[in-house]
């Protein structure tokens, strides 16, 4: 599993092979059962994660009491809650394992110490965040400008595995539609693909 991290270290940093292996030895890899809540809405985060295996859902309950899914994290994705702008540093989201997960766990209170020890690790982390943030910006802009059907088609194209890994009502929430609308749109899209010549 740690080979995935080694790939990122090689691509995004100039750490020597020896430094890479020392860091890998120090990194904490944890297993979590399906249904485990990693962070609750309103709590102060004390860890960040990198998914090696599994799926984690990011969701929140809004002022009307509705549960809204805002992201799904799967293999090779980092999970960080950016809340430094909030006076109480609390999370606006809950993170829940939708599957049994294997993740690298980074205690936030240990972060500065690791960065001081391995300066290239901070560079690598920053590059990963920049890549992820750029992708999130693009996806958000496309989401706002697209119809529910276009959102589903984009999801099928970019993250097809989510359709079989995530409960339909959570997927519908993530796409900004009702489960009934999602079901209708899925049927329409599948019919299009089954038509001759497609």
UniProtKB/TrEMBL annotation:
Pfam families: cNMP_binding
PROSITE patterns referenced in this protein's UniProt entry, alphabetically: CNMP_BINDING_3
Protein's recorded name: Cyclic nucleotide-binding protein
Organism, as annotated: Paenibacillus donghaensis
Cyclic nucleotide-binding domain sequence ranges: 11-57
InterPro entries from the UniProt entry: cNMP-bd_dom, cNMP-bd_dom_sf, RmlC-like_jellyroll
Keyword terms: Activator
């Amino acid at each position: 599993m740690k080979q995935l991290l080694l790939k990122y270290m090689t691509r995004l940093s100039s750490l020597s092979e020896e430094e890479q292996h020392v860091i890998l030895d120090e990194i904490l890899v944890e297993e979590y059962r399906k249904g485990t809540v990693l962070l609750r809405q309103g709590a102060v985060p004390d860890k960040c994660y990198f998914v090696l295996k599994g799926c984690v859902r990011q969701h929140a309950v809004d002022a009307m009491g509705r549960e809204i899914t805002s992201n799904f994290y799967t293999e090779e994705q980092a999970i960080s809650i950016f809340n430094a702008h909030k006076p109480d540093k609390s999370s606006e989201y809950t993170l829940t394992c939708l599957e049994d997960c294997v993740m690298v766990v980074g205690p936030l209170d240990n972060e500065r110490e690791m960065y001081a020890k391995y300066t290239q690790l901070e560079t690598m982390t920053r590059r990963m965040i920049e890549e992820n943030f750029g992708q999130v910006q693009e996806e958000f802009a496309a989401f706002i400008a697209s119809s529910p059907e276009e959102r589903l088609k984009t999801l099928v194209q970019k993250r097809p595995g989510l359709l079989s890994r995530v409960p339909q009502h959570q997927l519908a929430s993530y796409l900004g539609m009702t489960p009934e609308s999602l079901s209708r749109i899925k049927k329409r899209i599948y019919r299009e693909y089954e038509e001759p010549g497609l």
